[in-house]
Design a protein that fits this description.
Na+/H+ antiporter like fold, Na+/solute_symporter_sf, transmembrane, transmembrane helix
Length: about 300
């Protein structure tokens, strides 16, 4: 739990830095780019070679897609029952199925389950959340935004293949049989160690919470689905295959992550529910510091 306390401290540092005039408003964005292009690829290169292949590794890759299909159906159904506005339905379809499985997920998985659990989280994120962000969320945002052109198949493939952590994943898998030179391992270790403090300070710096009365019902629905129903669905799905205990815990824990910040940015960029989306991302992040320890405790009892 010491690592969890550190995560909270980093968040508070980020929130405090936002109040200082020496830090411009785009500081959080700059820190995010550092993580995307340096720290996260270094972590992937560092941890993926440690992954022991088994016939159950497809589960972390397929679970987020199973959840996406179910959640998308629930959003459409809820929109019809409660008569959500079209932009609200579009925003929830873009944001709700995807969790903050790397920027928040990796630090939290490491804090609660240790470094050995990170490879499972990486598979969940790279094969699930990231690919869904580059394809599903991008297409849906364009579909619900009448002023945007739907990206072509070639553009989506290019986004995936040129994403830094995806390149790192491909390299790590290709080089799995060859040990890294000592100095290169030292460089990777030092860069990967910066991921948790840098990204959590960035999250704290960027944290915003905006509420609108008309968005109360979709907000409560979305938070309930994301923080509680999705991990419950993941647990039910995984039980069908009786996977390794650590794999099950990590996948369910990743499914419990709050809405992805990047998916929220895509929805906002498409002009979808401009007050609901920041509230969903911000409040989801805040509540996850209560819900995630609860899920960890439940998973310890279950396993």
């Amino acid at each position: 739990m010491e690592n969890f306390a550190l995560v909270l401290i980093y968040l508070m540092i980020g929130a405090l830095l936002r109040r200082l005039p020496q830090f411009p408003q785009d500081t959080g964005l700059v820190l995010n780019q550092y993580v995307l292009f340096v720290a996260l690829p270094a972590l992937v290169l560092q941890k993926i070679p440690l992954l022991e292949f088994s016939n159950q590794l497809w589960l972390p890759a397929i679970t987020p897609w199973v959840l996406l299909v179910i959640v998308a159906g629930l959003v459409i159904l809820a929109g019809k029952i409660w008569h959500f506005e079209k932009t609200t339905v579009g925003a929830l379809l873009v944001v709700l199925p995807l969790g903050n499985t790397s920027f928040l997920g990796f630090p939290m998985v490491e804090a609660f389950f240790g470094e050995n659990a990170l490879p499972f989280a990486m598979i969940y994120d790279q094969a699930g959340s990231f690919v869904a962000l580059a394809t599903y969320s991008t297409i849906l945002a364009a579909w619900y935004n009448p002023n945007a052109a739907t990206p072509t198949t070639g553009q989506m493939i290019k986004r995936i293949l040129t994403f830094p952590s995806f390149i790192a994943l491909a390299l790590a898998l290709a080089l799995k049989s060859w040990p890294y030179p000592t100095f290169f391992s030292l460089v990777l270790d030092s860069l990967a160690a910066t991921l948790v403090p840098v990204i959590m300070i960035a999250v704290g710096f960027q944290f915003r919470l905006q509420l609108d009365n008309k968005d109360t019902k979709p907000l409560i629905f979305a938070l309930g689905v994301k923080l509680f129903l999705m991990p419950l669905l993941a647990l039910g799905f995984l039980r069908l295959f009786q996977p390794d205990a650590l794999l099950l815990q990590v996948v369910v824990f990743e499914a419990a992550m709050p809405p992805m910040v990047s998916a929220g940015a895509i929805a906002i960029g498409a002009g979808l529910a401009l007050r609901l989306v920041p509230a969903l991302v911000g409040l989801g992040l805040l509540l996850s510091f209560i819900s995630l320890p609860l899920w960890y405790a439940l998973l310890q009892l279950y396993v």
